[in-house]
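queue> pop job 88
queue> type: inverse folding (structure -> sequence)
queue> payload:
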C-alpha cells in the first residue's frame, strides 16, 4: 500500500479511529491492532511475502530469548550467527541471487569461457532490506547486552512490522522503538498536529516535487545523447532533487503517521544538500542507515583506530557495502566507491567531522565561503547520483562523457522557453529550496519566519494542499526506495 494512494487515505483514518476510540484502554489490544494493520498494509502489495516477515520475526524472537538464557560464549555466538545467517540469507536469495549468477557468467565470458545458467524468477519483496536490518540489529543488541529481549511476542512482532516505517524506513533500533510498544500511550494533540504537518510536507515533497521532476529526469537519462551538456547537467541535478524529495518525503510521512499513534521515530534527513563537505552530507542523508553501518560494521571493524591502512580499509568497506545494500547492480557499488573516494581525503586530514553545528546560524544567507562549500558538496553528490540513476556503469560513463562533448546552451534556453511544464517544475523546485533553507536548522519545515505568523503558516499549508491536488495523477507512483 502506498502512502500516496487512495487506499491508504481510507486505511489510515480507520486504523486511527479504532486505535484511539475503540481499543485505547488496553495496550495489548492496541499493539495487536498495530500488528494486524501492519500486515494488511504490507500484504496489500503481495500477501505471500508476509511469510518472510513472520519467519524473520519468529527467528529473532526465539534467538533473543535464547541469548538471555545462554551463558556459554560459544552458544551465544552460535545463536547470533543463526540470526545473521537467516536474515542475510533471505536478503541474499531474494535480492542478490540473480546478480551473483549473472556476474559469475559475465566474468567467465570475459575470459572466453561460455557458460549458461537458469536464474530464478525471483520477485524482490518490498522493504526487505529495511526490516532485515531492523531485526538483525535487535539480535546484535541483545547479544551485546545492550537490550533485554522481549518476551511479549505481539509487541515484538509489531515493532518488526510497524507499518509507517516498514517498507522504506527509518531503520529503527529496538533500543529506541521497542520500549514504546511496552508502555501506555496517550493521545497527544500537539504531537498529532506535528504529525499531520509532516505528512502534508512529505506528500508535497513526493507528489509535487519528486513526481513532477521524474518525467524530465527519465527523458534526459534516456535521450542524453540528443542533448548538449546544459540539459545533461540539468538532468543530473533534477535527479538529485527527485531522489531527495521522494525518499525524504517518505520518511516525513512515516514519522508523521507514527506520531499520530503516539510513537517517535528518528529523523532520517536533515537538509543534506546544504552540507559543507561529504562528511557532513553523510550525517544528514539517510541517517538511520549511515548510523547503522557505523555502529554494526565500521566500529566493529576497528573504525578509525589503528593504522591509516586499516582506517582506509574500513571506510571503503562501509561505503561499498552501503552501495551494495541499495541494489544488485554494479552502479550502486560504483556509487558507494565514489563516495568513499570523496570521504577519504577528509578522513586523512581530520576534516570529516569539521561541520557538526548548524548551517548559517547567524545569518539569513550563507557566507561566501560557506556558499561555495555547499555548492561544491552538492556538485560532488550530484556527480555520484549519475551512477545511482543510470542503468549500468557504461551508461553512467557515457552520460558523463556527453557532458563534455558539446555545450549547446541554446538547447537549454529553447527547452525553458518552449516547455511551460519545465518552467513550472523549476519554479516549484526553487520554492522548495527556499522552504528547506528557511528551516535548515530545525527538524520540521516550518522555519522561524512562519513560527509566529499564522497568516503565512496557513498560507503555506494551503499552497501545499493546492499543489498536491493539482499534481495528483490517476495512478499513485511508487517510491524509489521501494526497490531496495
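queue> result:
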Amino acid at each position: 500500500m502506498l502512502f500516496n494512494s487512495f487506499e491508504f487515505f481510507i486505511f489510515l483514518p480507520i486504523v486511527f479511529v479504532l486505535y484511539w476510540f475503540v481499543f485505547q484502554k488496553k495496550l495489548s489490544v492496541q499493539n495487536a491492532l498495530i500488528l494486524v494493520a501492519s500486515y494488511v498494509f504490507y500484504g496489500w502489495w503481495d500477501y505471500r511475502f508476509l511469510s518472510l516477515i513472520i519467519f524473520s520475526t519468529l527467528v529473532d524472537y526465539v534467538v533473543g530469548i535464547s541469548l538471555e538464557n545462554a551463558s556459554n560464549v560459544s552458544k551465544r555466538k552460535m545463536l547470533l550467527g543463526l540470526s545473521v545467517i537467516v536474515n542475510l540469507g533471505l536478503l541474499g536469495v531474494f535480492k542478490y541471487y540473480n546478480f551473483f549468477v549473472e556476474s559469475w557468467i559475465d566474468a567467465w565470458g570475459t575470459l572466453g569461457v561460455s557458460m549458461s545458467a537458469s536464474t530464478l524468477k525471483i520477485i524482490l519483496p518490498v522493504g526487505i532490506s529495511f526490516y532485515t536490518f531492523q531485526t538483525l540489529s535487535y539480535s546484535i543488541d541483545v547479544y551485546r547486552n545492550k537490550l533485554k529481549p522481549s518476551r511479549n511476542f505481539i509487541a515484538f512482532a509489531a515493532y518488526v512490522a510497524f507499518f509507517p516505517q516498514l517498507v522504506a524506513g527509518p531503520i529503527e533500533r529496538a533500543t529506541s522503538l521497542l520500549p514504546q510498544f511496552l508502555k501506555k500511550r496517550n493521545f497527544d494533540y500537539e504531537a498529532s498536529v506535528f504529525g499531520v504537518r509532516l505528512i502534508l510536507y512529505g506528500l508535497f515533497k513526493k507528489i509535487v516535487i519528486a513526481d513532477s521532476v521524474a518525467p524530465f529526469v527519465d527523458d534526459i537519462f534516456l535521450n542524453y545523447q540528443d542533448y548538449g551538456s546544459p540539459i545533461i547537467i540539468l538532468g543530473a541535478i533534477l535527479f538529485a532533487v527527485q531522489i531527495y524529495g521522494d525518499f525524504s518525503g517518505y520518511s516525513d510521512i512515516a514519522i508523521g503517521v507514527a506520531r499520530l499513534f503516539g510513537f517517535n521515530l528518528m529523523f532520517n534527513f536533515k537538509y543534506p544538500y546544504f552540507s559543507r563537505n561529504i562528511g557532513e552530507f553523510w550525517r544528514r542523508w539517510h541517517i538511520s542507515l549511515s548510523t547503522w553501518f557505523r555502529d554494526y560494521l565500521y566500529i566493529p571493524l576497528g573504525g578509525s583506530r589503528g593504522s591509516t591502512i586499516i582506517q582506509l580499509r574500513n571506510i571503503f568497506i562501509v561505503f561499498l557495502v552501503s552501495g551494495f545494500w541499495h541494489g544488485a547492480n554494479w552502479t550502486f557499488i560504483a556509487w558507494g566507491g565514489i563516495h568513499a573516494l570523496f570521504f577519504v581525503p577528509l578522513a586523512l586530514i581530520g576534516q570529516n567531522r569539521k561541520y557538526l553545528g548548524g548551517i548559517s546560524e547567524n545569518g539569513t544567507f550563507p557566507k561566501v565561503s560557506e556558499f561555495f562549500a555547499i555548492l561544491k558538496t552538492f556538485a560532488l553528490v550530484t556527480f555520484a547520483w549519475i551512477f545511482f540513476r543510470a542503468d549500468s556503469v557504461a551508461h553512467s560513463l557515457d552520460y558523463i562523457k556527453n557532458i563534455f562533448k558539446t555545450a549547446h546552451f541554446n538547447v537549454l534556453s529553447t527547452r525553458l522557453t518552449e516547455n511551460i511544464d519545465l518552467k513550472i517544475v523549476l519554479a516549484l523546485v526553487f520554492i522548495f529550496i527556499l522552504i528547506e533553507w528557511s528551516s535548515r536548522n530545525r527538524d520540521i519545515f516550518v522555519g522561524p519566519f512562519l513560527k509566529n505568523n499564522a497568516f503565512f503558516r496557513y498560507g503555506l499549508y494551503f499552497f501545499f494542499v493546492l499543489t498536491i491536488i493539482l499534481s495528483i495523477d490517476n495512478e499513485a507512483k511508487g517510491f524509489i526506495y521501494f526497490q531496495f
